[in-house]
Amino acid sequence: MGARRATAAVGLLSATLVIAACGDGGSGGSGNSATQDANARGPITFVTGKDNSGVLPFIADEWNRTHPDEKVTIKQQSDQADQQLSDLEQHFQAKDPGYDVVTVDVVWTAEFAAKGWITPLTGQNALDTTKLLPATVKSATYNGKLYAAPYGSDGGLLYYRTDLTKTAPTTWDQLIADCKDKTTKGTITGTKPACYAGQFAKYEGLTVNAAEAINATGGSVVGPDGRSATVDSAQSATGLDFLVNGFKDGYIPKEALGFQETQSLNAFEAGQLMFMRNWPYAVAILNGKGSKVAGKFAVAPLPGPSGHGASTLGGHNLGISTYSKHKASALDFLKFIESDAVQRNNLTVGTLAPVLTAMYSDPALIAKFTYLPDLLKSIQTGVPRPITPYYPGVTEAIETNAYAALQGRMTTHQALTNMQAAIKSATAGG
Amino acid sequence: MTPAGQVEHRVVKKPNGGRRRSKARRGATNPGEARLAYALITPTLLMLALIVGYPIIKAVYQSFLTDPGLDQASGLFTAGDAWFGLHNYTHWLLQQCATSNGGYTACPSGTPGSQFWESVGVTVGFTVVACTLETVIGMVFALMMHRAFRGRAMVRVSILIPWAIPTAVTSKLWQVMFDPQGCINKILGTHYAWTSSLWPARCAIVIADTWKTTPFIALLILAGLQNIPEETYEAAKIDGANAWRRFTSVTLPLVKPALAVAVIFRALDTLRMYDLPKILTGGANGTTTSSILVVDQLTRGVNSASALSTITFVFIFVIAFGLVRLFNTNILGAQTKAVR
Prior knowledge:
- Chain B: It is a multi-pass membrane protein.
- Chain B: One of its GO terms (biological process) is transmembrane transport.
- Chain B: Belongs to the binding-protein-dependent transport system permease family.
- The complex is a heterodimer of chains A (about 425) and B (about 350).
- Chain A is an alpha/beta fold and about 425 residues long.
- Chain A has 2 domains: about 5-155 and about 315-380, D-Maltodextrin-Binding Protein, domain 2 (3-Layer(aba) Sandwich); about 155-310 and about 385-425, D-Maltodextrin-Binding Protein, domain 2 (3-Layer(aba) Sandwich).
- Chain A has 16 helices and 11 strands.
- With about 350 residues, chain B is mainly α.
- Chain B has a two-stranded antiparallel ribbon with strand order 1-2.
- In chain B, helix 5 (about 115-145) runs antiparallel to helix 6, helix 5 (about 115-145) runs antiparallel to helix 11 and helix 11 (about 245-270) runs antiparallel to helix 14.
- The interface between A and B is large, with 70 and 72 residues.
């Protein structure tokens, strides 16, 4: 009886191991078939996240109209970044030639390049980047080589209530001063709004927000090589303390420890926040139906300790799969993506931040999207997140320790010391 | 035995059916029957070896290999899969992380290695607390459902609803309720950020898990209760046993086999818990279970994740084995005592 039940137990338990064994795949190899297919043309597949902004029909129609023999098929993934990532990983590990052009989050680019999954855009695959924002090109570059084509950029903005304050604060002190008398401290459920919130749940968004605070004071997460840890400094401590003290003193509500983009947006939309840090996509939603703050808010560059702060760069790049059979067509598709027509459509239809420098000084566009100059400033002065193939480990090192500091479970100094050690460990492959 | 004997044997035993038949059959196997039995179960065993055995052996083998490293000059990953001995195991068990100059250091906070023992503690903690709550409440529910009263069917159905809802939906449901502005804070008049601070987050998971799986335990106990003959209670009453005494001396020992199965199943399930904390809290605030850690590590390095999953496997297996042994003795003891 005992033996038989134990056998049943083994059967049940083996599920744990099966997960690990099935995750096996050729993550190591750097098999490069880039050259042999470089001239091959034919139909291609464009793999991208779910099209919430409605820009894909234009891209597909316009490309197919001008390239009848190399038609593009669009495969939409989920709208969750981690699900997109695991979908790409699975198809790359299977060396699937059915994925020709893939959308890559800026922070995945280095890992995909190091694993040999995306083709370097050099030699006969070279892409002209002179018209693009330098910051976006940098995000697509790994180890001195361009590996992807910038598709859309993103920078953080300060959203503020124009019915509560006339001008946007440029420094942290001004922001806190503006909150006096107009907000309640520490909660977003009161009759008056709370002061400030960003994205402080323990996830990628916290890495973005913590890095912004750290970079604003002249601190840095990693050195100029984009890899080695430099976060354990007095400047970094001053930066992180802005957020830590925010929770301690109550001008950041404690509910914000559970905020991702959507929750912070919902709170601002419901009139529960006076200031919010978010990406440009929020403008369209906050002006939409059902918003309590429609017409009562404006955007500005993020504040810092003395003058404007630093944004963390977001955005997406497009890579050509190493396993694509039609690389020449795929390269033409990347050039098409960088065209004025596509970038203009992405902005006007989907409010996606373009990567063409000229577009930010186009009077017609500025008339319609008044925040463009601020967004340009945010992107130009923006700081990329660490460019390393070990990014998942690096971001966990940052978010885990920053979270502990925000919760008050760890001092700022201790959090930065741990962060430094954990980034070092992650980039050593530990 | 002759063919005729076999036929006769079958004819005789068939109407009896059930337990007696299987007992009689076990003693009556001849070489021919045994061969047939082996021939019949061999395909199943082969399939099991293929779909259960092979992945286990492969995972254990992989756990002794290196993960791909980075070639600093080209920036590309080099092939891993070299022999690595027990390093993947010491990484987890002793929390030793590699340094850039090839040495080892204690894993700093914020690395998966540093979370190993915490995740083991969290997993065991959830199991002990949730299983205890579920067993106690499940027993109460089962006793309620067992009683004859008006609307019993309604009560049974309503108790079973949580078990019928998929875990992912349950997790989302409780996430909404545990929202800082959600109904739980409104009802309690509190302002807890349930899913974003340490102990409230852990409580939230135990509450949601208890809500979801108590019906399962209740159902198994109920099945056990229905097997207890009414005469036993009547006899106990005549002997002057009060309600508490009847519960501890009749109900509990007789329901113990069913209870043991329920607890073992729940304990194994909770030890492997992944979806509830992953969705409810994302593993933040000290709610990372061993299974969450395994899946997180998979994206970093398959071979080190294999070591972690092997450790988790052995760990759960030992606990499962211990529970089975413990309850087995208890069940046998209880049965003989009850019969006596």
